[in-house]
């Protein structure tokens, strides 16, 4: 049996679901196809952190400003869907706190000295489980569990074939498949773009301990409040797709994270995900040059930060609207 929604989104991570919800809000009938289970977005800490990401990656003023604009779309999204946006800020712990504070201030961020480093009010976070569930239930969005086995352009429509024999048709498809390999049937140019996304393995550990009032970060570890305590992470292991937890790395992370808090805790579940990244660290968002085919991929470790901006860029591209100023920086063809 076949169905024909206005838009098919393949992938239910934060970029796919933000895009689906945005399109649904604009009146489109959207079907999201996803195999289910954990993904990189669901095992993340939900940080929306333009300030400390800019500090950690030594970003240029233009790039830092882009991240801040992406963050500033979140209050409207959270308000529209009743999501709790934690605007508690974040603490930075590490050497040269005075220089770090000066760097952040030069980039236009709030940064105030603290006892062990600095505090910024510019970094926020969101509870990832409730957010993903709510976005998947947004008006106009239908979730379908399945794995796409083949994607074929047929004139003015796309044929999306499921691994179980189901078929969907639509004039518009959005690939939000994370770091997954290219889907069979794509044109060579698009397949090359998707295959060029670098997988980056990340791992974090849930810990039962007294949660700090806000996220605490250092150069090689973060601690974020979570259900029943905190989550401590996260690794950045380029080129790895395996999902087997690394017990030694978890022990190192937990030890470093608890040292930041100055307390004790009991380690719990270890979660592993694979994120996608481009060579410049920004997502691929927008049209591919193939009629009706769009990308929402590869946000590196900033999927939750970039979700609403990617959604806006992709939705505008689908509707043929004039692109927002940041669309060029996310153009999927910028490396061609």
Pick out its properties.
22 strands; D-Amino Acid Oxidase, Chain A, domain 2; alpha/beta; nine-stranded mixed beta sheet; FAD/NAD(P)-binding domain; six-stranded mixed beta sheet; 336 residues
List the helices and strands and how they pair.
Blueprint: E1 2-3, E2 7-10, H1 14-25, E3 30-34, E4 47-48, H2 50-56, H3 61-71, H4 74-81, E5 85-86, E6 90-93, H5 97-106, E7 112-114, E8 117-120, E9 124-126, H6 128-136, E10 141-145, E11 148-154, E12 157-162, E13 167-170, E14 172-175, H7 188-195, E15 198-208, E16 215-218, E17 221-226, E18 229-233, E19 237-238, H8 247-261, E20 266-277, E21 284-287, E22 293-297, H9 303-319
Parallel strand pairs: 1-13, 2-3, 2-14, 3-10, 6-16, 14-22
Antiparallel strand pairs: 4-9, 5-9, 6-8, 7-8, 11-12, 12-13, 15-18, 15-19, 15-20, 16-17, 17-18, 21-22
Helix pairs in contact: 1-9, 2-3, 3-9
Description:
With 336 residues, this protein is α/β, with parallel strands linked by helices. The chain has two domains: 2-41 and 131-197 and 279-330, FAD/NAD(P)-binding domain (3-Layer(bba) Sandwich), CATH 3.50.50; 198-276, D-Amino Acid Oxidase, Chain A, domain 2. Helices cover 29% and strands 31% of the residues. The protein is built from nine helices and 22 strands. The chain has helices spanning 14-25, 50-56, 61-71, 74-81, 97-106, 128-136, 188-195, 247-261, 303-319; strands spanning 2-3, 7-10, 30-34, 47-48, 85-86, 90-93, 112-114, 117-120, 124-126, 141-145, 148-154, 157-162, 167-170, 172-175, 198-208, 215-218, 221-226, 229-233, 237-238, 266-277, 284-287, 293-297. Strands 6, 7, 8, 15, 16, 17, 18, 19 and 20 form a nine-stranded mixed β-sheet that branches. A six-stranded mixed β-sheet has the order 10-3-2-14-22-21, with helices on one face. It has a four-stranded mixed β-sheet with strand order 1-13-12-11, with no helix packed on it. A hairpin with a 2-residue loop joins strand 7 and strand 8. Helix 3 crosses helix 9. The model has no long low-confidence stretch (mean pLDDT 96).
